[in-house]
Specification:
Oligomer: single chain
Strand content: under 5%
Distance between the termini: 90 Å
CATH architecture: Up-down Bundle
Helix content: over 70%
Strand order of the largest sheet: 1-2
Order of helices and strands: HHHHHHHEEHHHHH
Shape: globular
Number of strands: 2
Length: 371
């Protein structure tokens, strides 16, 4: 998410509130800051609706994925453990979006209190760091399964995967702390709103936080993902490896992983590029008003594209993941069997007893006929 969004919203709201006095607004803005473009009006009207759509789709789809993984009778594979945790991270992200939709609809007045101001933003930050590292681990798993099968294949255990997921969740919480500990409820008397904003200790903190997000939250994991994906693709294109049954089996799972990785990078790359440009802008490398407006609008649009990944991933599991579709059918069959057993258990015992008595009473008649 654009984590300086509320500050941008506040500036834009001030601009639109004074738009009925163009001369006065021009004088005020010329003395204080750049005038934000009219494109913000379209963004403000579109964003709450979009957030509600992402919430509904992402909530239903990711809940469906988690239910399938949790209720299936067989244990999850290593890749499925990572993808399941990715679905959990996306689920947490979409659960925070209704609060932001209501916040923007309320003219940027935060009615949910200080705790949710920090907590909801913490969930969004948690997804930002956690999701890409879950994908990094699933790409490493595919790399070990296809490229280093003989040397490191035994390291691919469910227990090891669960431990890695726990460490990633802890890492995501720690990494999101700089953006959450300085969240505050702040009243702006000039706009008569109580906003949930970041109140950093110094201007240099914004620069350090932006560089941390770009480096740790994107460049490092993407480098690892790119390295693993390059070698995975080479193995998949190697026809001499297709004779091995195990390699052929891992190939099907790797195709899904590669598609998920590609879509994730497409969705989140514009956001991280915009974040890096914004960091350079905070270092005063860009100072024009046109660049300021471009960064603010690009941050919002790239955030929307990043949100979309939360409901696209489950669709990829269904469309590309043959093994996942098979699991869905098996879970459905499990429920059908349980439903059938429930019906059988509900049959009255009197019926069984009457059947037994009838069969017993018929025995003497059969004996007479035989005689």
């Amino acid at each position: 998410m654009t984590f300086n969004a509320i500050e941008s919203y506040t500036k834009a709201y001030a601009s639109f509130n004074t738009s009925s006095f163009p001369l006065e607004n021009a004088l005020i803005q010329s003395n204080r800051t750049c005038t934000l473009s009219e494109s913000w009006e379209w963004i403000f009207s579109f964003q709450p609706i979009y957030m509600w759509i992402v919430f509904v789709l992402g909530f239903i789809e990711n809940m469906f994925v988690l239910i399938v993984f949790l209720l299936h009778k067989k244990r999850c594979t290593v890749a499925e453990i990572y993808l399941g945790n990715l679905a959990a991270a996306d689920f947490l992200l979409v659960c925070g979006l209704p609060f932001w939709a209501i916040y923007i609809s309320n003219k940027f007045h935060w009615p949910f209190g200080s705790f949710l101001c920090v907590f909801i933003n913490g969930l969004i930050q948690l997804n930002l760091y956690g999701s890409i590292y879950f994908l990094m681990m699933v790409s490493i798993d595919r790399y070990l399964a296809l490229v280093k099968t003989m040397s490191f294949g035994r390291m691919r255990t469910g227990r090891c995967a669960k431990l890695n997921c726990l460490l990633i969740w802890i890492f995501a919480v720690v990494s999101s702390m700089p953006k959450t500990i300085f969240r505050r409820i702040r009243y702006f008397p000039e706009f008569n709103v109580t906003a949930c904003v970041i109140d950093p200790p110094s201007p240099s903190w914004n620069v350090a936080s932006g560089l941390l997000l770009t480096l740790v939250g994107f460049l490092i994991p993407v480098t690892v993902i790119s390295y693993c994906s390059f070698h995975i693709i080479n193995v998949l294109r190697n026809n001499s490896m297709q004779e091995f049954k195990e390699i052929n089996k891992e190939k099907k799972a790797s195709v899904l992983v590669l598609v998920v990785l590609l879509v994730f990078i497409i969705c989140w790359l514009p956001f991280h590029i915009t974040t890096f440009i914004d960091t350079l802008h905070m270092m005063n490398l860009f100072s024009s008003c046109a660049m300021n407006n471009f960064i603010e609008i690009a941050s919002q649009i790239s955030s929307y594209l990043g949100y979309s990944n939360s409901f696209i991933n489950p669709l990829l599991y269904v469309m590309v993941g043959n093994h996942f579709r098979k699991k869905v059918k098996e879970v459905y069959n499990q429920f059908q069997i349980r439903k059938q057993r429930g019906r059988n258990a509900s049959i009255p015992t009197d019926f069984t007893a009457d059947t037994v008595r009838t069969s017993i009473s018929m025995e003497p008649q059969k004996n007479r006929i035989l005689l």
